[in-house]
Amino acid sequence: MTIRNKNRQPVVAGLHALPYSKDIGITERHSGALAILGALDDAGLSADDVEGLTRYVWQPTTEMEMARVTGIPNLKWFGAQDYGGGAGPPTVALACAAIELGVIDVAVVWRSRNRSSGGRPWAGQMLAEGQDQFERPFGIVRPADGIALIVRLWMKQFGWTREDFGRVAIDVRGMANRNPMAMMHHKTLDMEQYLSSRWIAEPLCLFDNCLETDGALAIVLVAAERARDLNASHRPAYVTGYALGSGPQVYAMTNYYGEQLGVSPNAYVAPELWKNTGLKPEDIDVAQIYDAFTPQVPLFFQEFGFCGEDEGADYLKSGECIPYNTSGGGLSEAYVHGFNLIVEGARQIRGDSTSQVKDPKHTVVTGGNVVPTGAMVLSKEPW
Amino acid sequence: MNAATPLPPKPVADRDTQPFWDAVAEHRLVVQRCSECGRWIWQPRPLCPDCHSPDLVWTDVGGDASVVSWTVLHPPVLTVWQDKLPFVLLLVELNDAPGVRMVGQLVDRAGTLLQTDGTSEGVDFDAPVSLRWRVDEAGQTLPAWAR
């Protein structure tokens, strides 16, 4: 277990999400600032209180640019985490570590992304450097193209079927149908629709892929001793712990050149998360699982030990499966590089989800498991 | 070509990868092998990850491989391939270099990209494939694989 000082435990004291859309009509700089100011207001704090900002490397707005826009007077801690959708919990962890060390008391983490109106990021990338030179000229252009090759292997290794993936798409769509904020709030999905949808990159069809959304979200993290002074009307969500991981010879999105073919970076995150939090899968009441692609969900359950190492798909239909992606996730609420999963995790602990689990004590939130990534646990009670 | 002509992504070599692309231009497939410990290394790099030797030898490998996985790509991907989709993308393992897996397109025996009717052209796990040379829409030579 990691070093723990109760006064320094990071607390999610504020959160905010702008309404999701296909065209938000403002820049990511603008939407990110609104999300940050909204989260600070939710926490009962102002820009003057912010000492740290952390972001995804893929966030086009830097910490300094965001500090200028929001009028944060001095940043004592800043930095960015790489690897696309793997960066969510690691970006939160970067802020948490500084709070736990006593370097800062208040940090904001945000993600704003015009992934719908801003176009598809791969469409204009015509020069293939680094690992891309051995992949993009050959046809691995869209995220789904690279993932499809490993998904077919997982289907062979674990006996997964397309119906197993369809079940994930339908499960999270049901969550979105209860969430008025979700892009897919009004659209239902059944297995017949799933199986008859068009291919993207076989074995992945349209509904195996996440949405393309404009969105902006932020959370405010505060040291527990400072959080006690805040006059917040909502329950704090305590960060019980987190872990990052890569595994050996790792490649982002095309992780199939190493010796451990089919093993994801999450297989390395999971034991560290349980060690760092002192928890085990049975302690988790609800999960927020990075779901840019449906097969990431059964892989999560088996790699984190909720079931046997090849039983993720069976677990999902077992009746013992815990609720997951209760806002609709990346597949049906919004795709904002997984930040909506972080916010939904905190909402579950607050008791504010539209698919609220009864009195959850712990929720796990993960980053994308096809890239170097991380995971964290948010809890109702402090250390 | 004018600016409006759609082009495929262009491989940009660096000092660590240039020998691979130089060999490809001569229709030779080469993979790094550590002269100290014998490890085959892919993708290219400056040091052996096991023994840290910088003496990595670009070694000619034969063109026989087997299919590890595959996908069929459907539109839209890039404009340049719009009339060539769907096509099959393979992950193959080289017979001569155990553990070395490369991505490549499925081509006919003449090296022309195979457009499919949406099927995977009989490709299956462990199916044998052999090396062909495909010249892409920008004139770039690429290793590709035929059944």
List keywords for this structure.
heterodimer, A: 383 residues, alpha/beta, 9-stranded mixed beta sheet, globular, B: 147 residues, mainly beta, 3-stranded antiparallel beta sheet, 1 helix, 9 strands, 35% strand
Give the class of chain A from helix and strand content and strand pairing. Answer: alpha/beta
How would you characterize the largest beta sheet of chain A?
9 strands, mixed
Strand order of the largest sheet of chain A: 3-2-4-8-1-9-12-11-10
Mean pLDDT of chain A: 97
Element-level helix/strand string of chain A: EHEHEHEEHHHEEEHEHEHHHHEE
The shape of chain B is globular
- Number of beta-strand segments of chain B: 9
- Summed up, the helix count of chain B is 1
Envelope shape of chain A: globular
Can you lay out the helices and strands and say which pair or pack?
The complex is a heterodimer of chains A (383) and B (147).
Chain A: E1 10-17, H1 28-43, E2 52-56, H2 63-70, E3 77-81, H3 88-101, E4 106-114, E5 127-128, H4 143-158, H5 162-177, H6 191-195, E6 199-201, E7 204-205, E8 214-223, H7 224-227, E9 237-245, H8 266-277, E10 286-288, H9 296-303, H10 312-316, H11 329-333, H12 339-350, E11 362-366, E12 373-379
Helix pairs in contact in A: 1-2
Chain B: E1 10-11, H1 18-25, E2 30-34, E3 40-41, E4 56-60, E5 64-73, E6 87-94, E7 101-105, E8 128-135, E9 141-146
Please give a structural write-up.
The complex is a heterodimer of chains A (383) and B (147). Chain A has 12 helices and 12 strands. Chain A has 383 residues and is an alpha/beta fold. With 147 residues, chain B is mainly beta. Helices cover 5% and strands 35% of the residues of chain B. Chain B has one helix at residues 18-25; strands at residues 10-11, 30-34, 40-41, 56-60, 64-73, 87-94, 101-105, 128-135, 141-146. Chain B is globular and about 45 Å long. The interface between A and B is large, with 39 and 39 residues.
